[in-house]
Task: structure prediction
Amino acid sequence: RLRFAGLAYTTDQGAPVKAPRGKIPYLHISKEKNGGSEMLSDTQLISEKLVAGGLADDLNGNLTAAEKAHDLAFRALLEDKFSSINYERWEQNYYTMRSGVLSALPYPAQILVGKLAYNKMSATLYGQGTSRFTPEEITKFKTEIWENVDALLTASREKATKKKDGGMFFVWGGETPTEADTTLFAFIASGLVCDA
Result:
């Protein structure tokens, strides 16, 4: 979202214990004029705050009501239904996840903090309903989501290719990105940087 807005930023490893609402992602905005700062969490709330503050354009501002509904549904699919990615990371690849996420800690602390994080994530996955399914069912859900996202992107790429000479294309095949593009980018990027 920050990249689409052309805002300068640095990235760092997040920690739910430091985050407002205990969720990742979160954002720390430093205000140069008065030296203050602000912590924001939740992708949608961060985007709304950036738009309201004039720091970013409303990526969905030119969409029709129906297009906004589709955009919201796509983001919800990834953010809410696709919690199987956390199952894969924390339940199926715990040791890789622990050593990666907690690499800044000494090894004995990784074991303790990792167990606490694992227990919390396991409870969350159970509460969301994800871990109530078999690993095979979870894999089926995840595969279905990615196959449908792939089909959507393939159609959008074909639509964009007809309009111009290839190159960049967006989720809905339009000329500009929407909030769906920012969410999809975040999911793909997190998959590429996380070994678990």
